[in-house]
Amino acid sequence: MFNLDGQRKYLTQSETRRFLQEARRDDSAVHCFCWVIAVTGCRISEALALTPANIDFEERIIVFECLKKRRRHIYRSIPVPTGLLHALRIVLRTGRIQMTERIWPWSRMTGYRRVREVMERAHLAGTHASPKGLRHGFGVSAIQSGVPLNMVQRWLGHADMKTTAIYTSAMGPEERDIAARMWGRAFETNETGSSTAMRGRSPAPVRLSESNQKTVVKERVTLNFQGSRRTERLNSLAGVTAGSG
User: Fold this and answer.
1) Cα–Cα dist 99/128, whole Å
2) Dihedral through CA 71, CA 75, CA 78, CA 80, nearest 10?
3) Distance between CA atoms of 191 and 183, rounded to whole angstroms?
4) What digits encode the pLDDT tens for the residues 150-178?
5) The CATH number of 13-169 is which of 2.60.200.30, 1.10.443.10, 1.10.1200.10, 3.90.226.10?
6) What ranges do the domains of the chain cover?
7) Is the model's pTM score more than 0.85?
8) Pairing of strands 55-56, 75-79
9) DSSP assignment string, 187-226
10) Which stretches of the chain are DSSP H helices?
């Protein structure tokens, strides 16, 4: 998830939030365009190809045609927030866009420029400050949120699972917390982990499933039993030694 110069290629969740907050200041068409790319991970060309017919308001999904496939008419559906659907409905009504008309009748360069203008106003710069950075950020966020890899692959329209697996290399909050605990134990620092420090409280205890709890209890019972047997043997040996003396 880094380029040849070691620069990050994806937007973090906080950067994506800043981007969307700034996009709200723009007109509704630009706002929805940025919102669609951010929450679906679609390619900019796939977003520009959308028509009202691709939006299923009942199922709350957007259907994209996978434009990078060798064959045409290959589609994938991605769930989207209800708020985005409401915003899109307003854009369609205001613009009186017909079912077969493109929602954003822009060129690819114009769409790219609209996203970049919002990025600049949000003070986002670098390799990751681009529509592709939003797509990568969506993949990283999905993986770190526990979305199954095969589902992320389908949402992003990847032909090969190996391409999707690249997103697992991005460092998540759990990895940072583990590193912070290591610093505290091995190097005697006061690091408490980013997520814990932000919330100002100790990490939540690990919850075990019922089967794992039974396993732990069984292991504890076994250890206690073995400990008691060991104590009995030591006491008996002590008695024999005392008797022989």
Assistant:
1) 34
2) 120
3) 7
4) 999 999 999 999 999 999 888 877 788 87
5) 1.10.443.10
6) 13-169, 171-201
7) no
8) unpaired
9) S------HHHHHHTSPPPPPPPPHHHHHHHHHHHHHHHHH
10) 13-23, 28-40, 44-48, 82-95, 108-121, 131-144, 149-156, 161-165, 173-186, 194-199, 210-244
Structure tokens given for 189 = 């620092």
The string of pLDDT tens digits covering residues 176-222 is 887 888 888 777 656 555 544 444 554 444 454 555 555 544 555 45
Burial of 167 (0-12, 13-18, 19+ CB in 10 A): buried
Instruction: List the one residue out of 153, 155, 171 whose CA is nearest residue 163.
Output: 153
CA distances from 52 to 44, 81, 128 (A): 17, 16, 30
